[in-house]
Amino acid sequence: MGLVFDxxxxxxxxxxxxxxxxxAAYSRIMATRKTPQFYHIYIDAFAGPGKHIxxxxxxxxxxxxxxxxxxDPPFREYHFIDIxxxxxxxxxxxxxxxxxxxxxxxxxxxxLIEKIFPKVRFEDYRRALCLLDPYGLHLNxxxxxxxxxxxxxxxxxxxxxxxxxxxxxxxxxxNVDPSDIERMNxxxxxxSWLRIAYSKPNLFNFAMKEDNETIAxxxxxxxxxxxxFKHVSKPLPMRNSKGAIVYYLFFAxxxxxxxxxxxxxxxxxxxxxxx
Length: 275
Known about the structure:
This protein is α/β, with parallel strands linked by helices. The protein has one domain: 3-Layer(aba) Sandwich (Rossmann fold). Helix content is 40%, strand content 21%. It contains 10 helices and 13 strands. Strands 2, 5, 6, 7, 8, 11, 12 and 13 form an 8-stranded mixed beta sheet that branches. Strand 7 (126-132), helix 5 (141-150) and strand 8 form a beta-alpha-beta unit. Helix 1 (10-32) runs antiparallel to helix 10 (256-270). The two termini are 34 Å apart.
């Protein structure tokens, strides 16, 4: 069967606008830096086919890979990863005339740590903007922590509360499938999320899970204190057509200027509210 392009809603289009706006500012700053001169790259770990269909218009809209490739001044390199062979085929078409763009098929977790992050060593004056936008709990904490410890990576991160609520954070945690607990542990990095998510006992002696924002803010603290990002934005809640929060969009960096830019961008879109 051929590829069926994802239909994306209003807030997914907002996310793409945020990435476009920040990536343009980031590349402009990096390209004009002379002392020292930086070599900056773009990394997309769940790249998809490069375009989507808008639920609002029914028309194709550029995905994050296409947006990144159109940024001017351009990044020096691009690294796109996806596990879906049909999406990889579309990506290859997209970058056919761009030798500086590299495609990887497979699980992004080992690919990032073993093949791509080593190309962005701080001491080599290399820097990267990395988009980690999984469809659910399909990302390992080791990737996030490595990105922070390298000191050379600005990171957008999807914190998938819809998957977490649907499969992990039940009223009675003893009934949760062990495989879902393992996925949550892998994303969070350990089991400390249990103490945060289930901090309120109720009348029936089952744990009462905390609200989405409390858990997201605990993860924000973890990005700062454990992954060692100096600056971690207040996460932006991303919603579905009914207004329910599907995920939180985080941004983390080592640079105050990056934090200032993303705060301006996030605040602008935060004020738009739900469409």
